[in-house]
Amino acid sequence: xxDLTFFADPDVDRVLGVVMELxxxxxxxxxxxxxxxxxxxxxxxxxxxxxxxxxxxPEERAARLAARDDFIQRILTPMTAxxxxxxxxxxxx
Length: 93
Prior knowledge:
Elements: H1 10-43, H2 48-53, H3 58-80
Helix pairs in contact: 1-3
């Protein structure tokens, strides 16, 4: 794990690291599933070779990158949104 410190309590940084690793894995699974769904819609069948060789169109790639950015924003919002939080204002460690 990285030596980056965001919170005064190192355990919170560790939990954040775990959450971000899981989020990364979830994003990869969602992306792979999106590819599987696309290939099945187009061809009705699927092979591992088809899946591994798939290249999204520029439009699809842009949509996937936008979805990724939205996913990251949703994950990080609870750490950065202070308006609705009863917690004290964030102070970097």
